[in-house]
Amino acid sequence: MDSDFEKDIGEELTSLENGNSDNEVRSTIEEVDGGLETIESSENRKYFYTEIMSTAGPRKNFNEDAHDGDYDLGEDVVGCFTKRNKTFFWLLDGTSDSPILKTRDGNDIFSSRLLAQEVAWNIQKNLLCANSEDLNSEKILKSTFEDIQKSWNEKFVKLSEIDRQSLLNILKEKRQMVVSTTVIFGIIDLDGNLDFSQIGDSFVVTKPTQEFEENSGRLFVIAFGTDDDESIKIELNPFDDTRVKQFKLNNINTLIIATDGISKNTVKWLNIIHSIDFKDENFRKTVSAIRQRTCDDKAMCIIQILEDV
């Protein structure tokens, strides 16, 4: 055998040893006429179709405690990625009218927008470190929130003395500041097994259609100053107090998650129609043309399981 052929065969064997999904096109190596040949099965191949639709809504009027509000990008954070036979997805909606703490150079150090972003970043970091047996949506969320509390406390410790004292004075005057976000995080595989955890009032639509109760929970992060050592502390509401709900469903072929900027009429329509196909250009145009009539950021993530025939 020449070296290139040996390399190709080695890669095929490694792939087989790592275990291909039953839903992927399988390759086997068989002896044919005294040599080795790769034989592909005739099984149909399933794959994921994903799409994200979003827009920033009009900025809200800020209350007195948040007059220096966020006029930049909205607080909705949505994303997904696929690894082998699983797709991981997340959706966060930071509270628009919550207060913001900035350092002297104008950088956010404490805001709902920053919280939503960092929860998403830490979810992805935890996914990269997780073993297959640890892929539990609620378990990963809990670990993510613990990481946020640790890292946010550390960044306040590392502030310059001038920034620390300035922010400490603000917190002492107001007693405390609170930022928050809703969260949806989950995992779906090519067999339609869905595991997701939800905190707050974002929407979930599945096909086949499932009914989900409204969730009024939220992840809160509280910043306050201490009198004893003149430091700034960060605390999260206890995990159970976020009102997190975990769902495990089977045989799901379509999943849509959306922030509450998407109108309830849109969600109701998506629930009652028989099928959803975002590959269909006309269907995408229909969804895009719906007047949402909400003064809020809007974000939607669509995941479909499709099959080559």
Features:
15 strands; alpha+beta; seven-stranded antiparallel beta sheet; 309 residues; Phosphatase 2c, domain 1; four-stranded antiparallel beta sheet; 28% helix; 33% strand; 2 domains
Task: Summarize it.
The chain has 309 residues and is of the alpha+beta class.
Radius of gyration: 24 Å
Order of SSEs: HEEEEEEEHHHEEEEEEEHHE
Average pLDDT for all residues = 81
Measured between the Cα atoms of the first and last residue, the distance is 36 Å
Describe this entry's structure for a reader.
This protein is an alpha+beta fold and 309 residues long. It folds into 2 domains: 3-40, no CATH class; 47-307, PPM-type phosphatase domain (Phosphatase 2c, domain 1), CATH 3.60.40. It has 6 helices and 15 strands. It has helices at residues 3-18, 112-129, 137-157, 161-174, 264-272, 281-289, and strands spanning 27-32, 35-40, 46-55, 76-83, 86-94, 101-102, 108-110, 176-189, 194-199, 203-207, 219-225, 232-236, 245-249, 254-258, 298-307. Strands 4, 5, 8, 9, 11, 12 and 13 form a 7-stranded antiparallel sheet that branches. Strands 3-15-14-10 form a 4-stranded antiparallel sheet, covered by helices on one side. A hairpin with a 6-residue loop joins strand 11 (219-225) and strand 12 (232-236). The chain is elongated, with a radius of gyration of 24 Å. The model is unreliable at 1-43 and 62-67 (pLDDT under 50).
